[in-house]
Design a protein that fits this description.
Order of helices and strands: HHHHHEEHHHHHHHEEHH
Shape: globular
Strand order of the largest sheet: 1-2
Number of domains: 1
Number of strands: 4
Strand content: under 5%
Largest sheet: 2 strands, antiparallel
Structural class: mainly alpha
Radius of gyration: 21 Å
Number of helices: 14
Length: 386
C-alpha cells in the first residue's frame, strides 16, 4: 500500500477524542481549590461512576485504537514483528520514565517516589496491546489480516482472570472476595508487598489506583479500543461503521451495568464491570465523533480538541509540571508571600466568583492556557512524539 494511502487513513475523530480526553484530564486535575469542586468533576469516593471516572479509561481505549494505526504502517512496509518490538519497548520505557519524572518532581526522593502512576499504566497497556496486535495480525498481499475474535476472547479472559483472583484468591491479613474496603483487597495487599507503602499513592499509602493487579483489566480496556480500530479499518461503509460502534457501545455498557450486580463499578479497582461500562461509553463517544468529524466533515467546532490531541502526552506532562510550579512559585500580595495558585484563585477568582465557581474558572483558565501553548505548536506543525 502506498505511503500516501496510509497517511489518508488517519482518523481525525481519534485525534479529537484524544484531545477531548486530555483536556478533561487537565480540567479535573487542576481546580483552584481541592476543597471546592463540583461533584461531577470529582472521582467517585469508592464504588460508583462520575464523568471524571471516564477520562482515564477513555484514554486507554484510545491507546488501543491508535495501536492498530501505528503498527499497520511498518507491517505493510515489510517489517517483521521482531524488528518492530524494539520500537515498542523503547516507547514503553520512555512513557514509564516520564511517569516517574512526574512522580518525583521536583525533589526526587527515590526512597519514597511513587512507582505506579497514570503514564506508567499507559506504558504497560500500550506494550501489552501492541504485542498482542503483532501476535494476532499479519501483512498479506498489501492488507492486514487480523483475528478480532481472538482479541475479544483474550480481553474476556483477562477480565475473568482478574475477577477470579479478586473474588477467590486468599491473601495474608484479608478476606478473599472483599471489594468494600480500599486497603483490604488482594490488589492493595499485592501493591504493598511489591512496592512497599512509601512507593504507593501518597493520598493513601495502603493501596494504589494504578497498581499491579488492576492493570490486568486495564489491558482489556485497551483491547476494546484495538477492536474498535480494527472495525474502523474494515471495508464496510462509513455509516455502517459508525452504527456498529454505537450498537456495540450500548451492548457493552448494558452488560457492565448488569455485571455490577455481582461486582461493583469501581475505577480504583478497575473492576470488570467498570471496564465494560466505560468501554461501552468510549465506543459511543467515538461513534458520535466519527460520524460528526470523519463522515460529515464538521471539524471547525472541534479544532481546540484536535490541537490538544495532536500533542496529547506532551501537554499532559507539561501541564502536570506546570501545576507543581504554580504551587512552588511565590508572589507577594499585601505584604505577604503566597503561592501563585493561591494568589490567582484566592485573591482574584474566589472574591469575584465564589468558592466553587471560582475553582472551576481557574481550572478552565488553566486548560485555555495550555490550549494556547499547544496552538502555537500546532500552527508550526510541531508534534512531540514519545
Amino acid at each position: 500500500m502506498p505511503d500516501t494511502e496510509l497517511k489518508s487513513r488517519r482518523l481525525i475523530s481519534l485525534d479529537i477524542f484524544r484531545g477531548l480526553t486530555i483536556a478533561g484530564m487537565i480540567l479535573v486535575n487542576n481546580p483552584g481549590s481541592w476543597e471546592h469542586i463540583y461533584p461531577p468533576l470529582e472521582h467517585a469516593a469508592w464504588n460508583g461512576l462520575t464523568p471524571t471516572d471516564l477520562i482515564f479509561p477513555f484514554f486507554l481505549f484510545i491507546v488501543g485504537v491508535a495501536v492498530k494505526y501505528s503498527l499497520d504502517k511498518p507491517l505493510l512496509g515489510g517489517l517483521t514483528p521482531a524488528k518492530i518490538r524494539p520500537r515498542i519497548l523503547r516507547r514503553t520505557a520512555a512513557l514509564f520514565l516520564l511517569g516517574e519524572v512526574l512522580a518525583g518532581f521536583p525533589r526526587y526522593h527515590l526512597a519514597a517516589i511513587r512507582i505506579p502512576g497514570v503514564l506508567q499504566r499507559i506504558a504497560v497497556c500500550y506494550l501489552a496491546a501492541s504485542f498482542i496486535y503483532l501476535w494476532l495480525a499479519r501483512a498479506e498481499n498489501g492488507e492486514i489480516k487480523f483475528r478480532p475474535r481472538a482479541a475479544a476472547w483474550l480481553a474476556g479472559a483477562l477480565l475473568a482472570l482478574y475477577y477470579a483472583l479478586m473474588k477467590f484468591a486468599p491473601f495474608p491479613g484479608g478476606e478473599a472476595g472483599s471489594w468494600a474496603v480500599p486497603g483490604a483487597t488482594l490488589a492493595a495487599w499485592l501493591d504493598r508487598a511489591v512496592f512497599g507503602v512509601r512507593h504507593l499513592w501518597r493520598n493513601t499509602e495502603t493501596w494504589d489506583p494504578e497498581g499491579i493487579l488492576s492493570t490486568i483489566p486495564a489491558v482489556a480496556t485497551a483491547l476494546i479500543g484495538l477492536l474498535a480500530g480494527w472495525w474502523l479499518e474494515t471495508g464496510k461503509e462509513r455509516m455502517e461503521k459508525a452504527a456498529g460502534l454505537l450498537v456495540a457501545g450500548c451492548i457493552l455498557a448494558a452488560a457492565g451495568y448488569l455485571a455490577s450486580a455481582f461486582m461493583p463499578i469501581n475505577k480504583n479497582l478497575w473492576t470488570p464491570s467498570f471496564v465494560l461500562v466505560t468501554g461501552g461509553l468510549a465506543l459511543l463517544f467515538l461513534g458520535v465523533i466519527y460520524w460528526y468529524a470523519d463522515i460529515r466533515g464538521c471539524r471547525r467546532a472541534t479544532l481546540p480538541f484536535l490541537v490538544y490531541g495532536s500533542n496529547a502526552i506532551a501537554v499532559y506532562f507539561l501541564a502536570d509540571i506546570g501545576a507543581e510550579l504554580m504551587c512552588m512559585i511565590k508572589v507577594k500580595a499585601g505584604g505577604a508571600s503566597c503561592a501563585l495558585i493561591d494568589f490567582i484563585y484566592g485573591r482574584m477568582l474566589q472574591p469575584a466568583f465564589g468558592d466553587t465557581l471560582g475553582s472551576l474558572v481557574y481550572a478552565i483558565g488553566y486548560v485555555l492556557f495550555w490550549l494556547a501553548a499547544m496552538w502555537v505548536l500546532y500552527r508550526k506543525k510541531i508534534f512531540i512524539k514519545v
